[in-house]
Amino acid sequence: MLTYLRKRIISSALPLVVVVVGVFALARMTGNPASLYLPLNATDAMRADFIAKNGLDQPVLVQMADYFGGLLRLDFGTSLRTGEDAAAMALRAFPATLQLAATTMVIAIILAIIVGSAAALKPNGLLDRLASFVSMAAASIPDFWLAIVGIWVFAIYLGWLPTSGVMGAAAWVLPVATLLMRPFGALVQVIRGAMVTSLSEPYIKLARSKGASEYRVVTAHALRNAAAPALTVAGDLTVGLVNGAVVVETIFGWPGIGKLMIDSILQRDFAVLQACVLITAIAIFILNILIDLGYALLDPRVRPTAGARGKRKARTITSTTEPTTPSEPTVPAVTGANA
Amino acid sequence: MMELLDSQRAAEKTLTTVLAVTGLDVDIRTPTGTVRVVNKVSFTAYQGQTLALLGESGCGKSMTAKAIAGLLDPVASVAGGVVALEGKDLNTMSARARRAVAGPSLGIVFQDALTALNPVYTVGTQLGEAFRIHRGMNKKQARLQAIELMRRVGIPEPEVRASAYPHQFSGGMRQRILIAMAVALSPRLLIADEPTTALDVTVQAQIMALLRRLREEENMAVVLITHDLAVVAEEADNVVVMYAGNVVERGPVATVFSAPTHPYTKGLLESVPTHAVRGDELSSIPGSPPELKNIPAGCVYQDRCPMVAAICRETRPELRQTGENQFSACHFSDVLVTQAGNPTNDHSLTSPQLEDNQ
Amino acid sequence: MTQTLNAPTGQQRAPKPSKVRLGGPSMFRMLLRDKFATIGALILAVVILVALIGPTLMGELATKQNLMFMNKAPFDPANGWAYILGSDSLGRSMLARLIVATRTTLMVAVPAVLVALLVGSLWGVWAGYHRGRRENISMRIADIIMSFPSLLLAVVVLYVFSPSVANIVLILALTRIPIYMRTARAESAELQSRTFVDAARTFGTKPNSIIAMHVIPVVTPTLLTLATLEFCYVMLAESSLSFLGIGIQPPDVSWGLMVAQGRQYLQTAWWLSILPGAAIVITAIAANLLAAWLRIATDPAQRWRLTLEKPARKALKSLSKEAK
């Protein structure tokens, strides 16, 4: 298990490194922050001083080496905008996004399990067709537009919910509902498909032959088998949730990492952007590891070390207590009769 | 010879009926209409005996087994007939009552153990499930029962292996686990649906030996679904030969195999290369079974039958008695009876086809 | 086999039945049998037609400001047909602006889908056919692109390079290439182990010819279905970018940008945001409906459902309803 985990960590870390280097390089190309932060009538000396102070006159490779050296010392640089520690700013924004994403995913998974399973029980039934319509709509509606319509109806027209902010439970309704749509729609289809497959597997018949109740058959046998494939998709959807978070946080003024990232780009605030990207990438990295571990937990067949040991054992345990009948008949089967 | 016959008769008189299937019909709904895949199938399985359902793939033998066990696919349904298990009709039972029967009264062994076992649970958990459902045991008690069962079906180190998953076992071991699961609650009837098809020949023999041992220990009635003539000859007391959804012949294995009274049974037995000489062409039944969608009027076997006559094209033959406990659905069964000479003399031979096999 | 002997370059047909004649008359008849797919195809056809000839017909109307017709509500015949969908704060006709935006929206979405389809499919088929290190490296690249939120990548890239139509197309294509790659690789890896590919290889056919002759025809239907779905995704991504201000830039106009511009008038003129959004939703749903039908129509195991006559389909429906 440890070798397996180490392998997974190494392979998941590669994208992490690529992303950090890539974003660093791209961020350097966004333009000279000196022109953005200094007053219009700043002298050339002031500009040179600003550039030198922030290390912008160094070659890109040197800047990058400095940057990585800083990362090792947990120094993410300071914000050009506020002079604050970039890591502190990103870490302050991160929990808001994490809460939003976690709430959304938990609700999406629970709802999708209920709706997806119910749809799979009666393929082509009313509920099934309703579910596939909902997930199709969810894949077709732009999230920013749904957010705007939500604000228009519930905040402006009906006045039930606030248009933005994080205060109180009501403020969570629209952002979560907007973010929920896409993962919910996708998960319903995945769970429905996995449930239809697992419900038609022979082990379902075996469970029924033991007299298992319908509830037990659906939950303990079918759903338990559908969980592993659904988990993988849920992981990918959580990564995709960051996309939605950027839009939703911008519209609802949610002080999360998505909004901070957009703001830093617009302000050419390198350090903060890099800190944000790095934290997001680390979060995704950790998420991928957790998904892998969860998958191995849900599906014993992919536990490599345990499986290898078991196989070796199984091979030695084919000897039995039943004596082999030596005169085993060689009469052909009936199916061969018409050959 | 006569003494043997008498003792056999005496034994038959004391037989206890476990399963009595009468006029069972099974339909499959397809987009182009309903197809009858099992037509008026009747047979009886006795305690302590093995009844073989023999036929080619697609003849309806598996469908019959699934109908008895109540495990038909959603597109298939029982259209008529009575399936009486220990006198109670399973077809008219409520779903709840049927679940109460599944396990304690009726066990089924599936064909492919790899797909039949749930891949995400340990075999110990799956073996214990029946005890948890029907006996209300807790996890610990059920596990002990599971280990005991594994020991009974000959799985070494059951205490350790109970925590292993299905994919960590060999094919033969998985089949043993499936069998253990089916007999967990000592059912009166065990249905074995081609239990050895997916296995190596040597392992097949072990599995059949295990089934035989368990049948004797538990005094169960066994319904064995198979397409293997040798297995029938070796294991079964009675045989039901099916063709295109219909029973064409049934009776004691010894009688049916030594003196078949249906041309299909005869053709099957002749296709077995027992007396084959090198260079001779092997006998085979020409043609292939009819599609279940368009079964001809008249006899189901008419298109491949060497004895076909005008009446076979018009009237479907009913099952008629052709010998001691032997029945055949053929207009010309009398001819076959005379051809076979004096069939009752052959009772001592359990499987004449296997005599000079080596 | 005689055929293969006569044509040792491996010209024999793939024996897999999944090669589907796209656009043939039977395909068209199957489309007409599916109500929803027909509607979806019709909507897409109208959208494409509007994008092609609409802007020419509209002429100056889309940019003509008319202070007499500021923020007119839609569906009021009194304002004349040009203002039937209302007008914006500068008195420009919403109908005309929507039509012009259709062209911009498609001009981003269609090329982005095509570029990603072409590059991703060929790359994936190639990687899957050759297996080994070429496959591993390719898939690792796909993983890297996929492991980062695509919108974020686009946001960063578009801020570095100016958000021109070409750049938007390229970044959207780049982030979607892995989708095609993964599908094409999986199918091609499965195909390359098939007997008919082995047979072609035995005759000394070059890998590229085998890929062109045996692999690509088989994977094409699947990839085209995927591309239809991706059209929907790419269109939504473009509108998200435009909404965030880093996609299409004024004075150009796309549906997403119109939603963003109308957002500040939400309280007074809802139609400025809602109508272009509705255009996005309707087009996306149409693409989805067509993709759902394509998935069945190009799957040999399921295609029979579409060839059934009406009564049989009804029977099938009631049948599956009964099925537990």
Structural class of chain B: alpha/beta
State the name of the first-level CATH class of the largest domain in chain B.
Answer: Alpha Beta
Helix amount of chain B: 25-40%
Following the backbone from N to C, one meets helices and strands of chain B in this order, namely HEEEHEEHEHHHHHEHEHEEHHHEEH
Whole-Å distance between the termini of chain B? 26 Å
List segments of chain B where confidence is low: pLDDT < 50 over at least 5 consecutive residues. 342-358
The beta-strand count of chain B equals: 12
Radius of gyration of chain C: 24 Å
Count of helical regions of chain B: 14
Number of helices of chain C: 13
Level of helix content of chain C? 55-70%
- Mean pLDDT level of chain C: 75
Hey, which two chains have the biggest interface?
Answer: A-B, 50 and 82 residues
The main β sheet of chain B shows up as:
8 strands, mixed
Rg of chain B from C-alpha positions?
Answer: 21 Å
Which series of helices and strands of chain C comes N to C?
HHHHHHHHHHHHH
Q: Which architecture name of the domain at 86-303 in chain C does CATH use? A: Orthogonal Bundle
How many separate structural domains of chain B?
A: 2
Poorly predicted regions of chain C: 1-25
What does this structure look like?
Chain B: This is ABC transporter ATP-binding protein. Chain B: Residues 21-269 form the ABC transporter domain. Chain B: It is found in: Cell membrane. The complex is a heterotrimer of chains A (339), B (358) and C (324). With 339 residues, chain A is mainly α. Chain A has helices spanning 2-28, 33-37, 44-53, 60-72, 86-121, 126-140, 143-157, 170-199, 202-209, 214-252, 257-266, 270-298, 304-316. Chain B has two domains: 17-241, P-loop containing nucleotide triphosphate hydrolases (Rossmann fold, 3-Layer(aba) Sandwich); 266-341, no CATH class. In chain B, strands 6-7-8-3-9-10-12-11 form an eight-stranded mixed β-sheet, with helices on both faces. Chain B is globular. Chain C is built from 13 helices and no strands. Chain C has helices at residues 2-6, 25-33, 35-58, 94-130, 132-146, 150-160, 165-191, 195-202, 207-244, 255-262, 271-297, 304-307, 310-322. Residues 1-25 of chain C have low confidence and may be disordered. Chain C has a domain at 86-303: MetI-like (MetI-like fold), CATH 1.10.3720. Classes of the chains: A mainly alpha (339), B alpha/beta (358), C mainly alpha (324). Chains in contact: A-B, A-C, B-C. At the A-B interface, helix 9, helix 10 and helix 13 of A face helix 3, strand 6, helix 5, helix 8 and helix 9 of B.
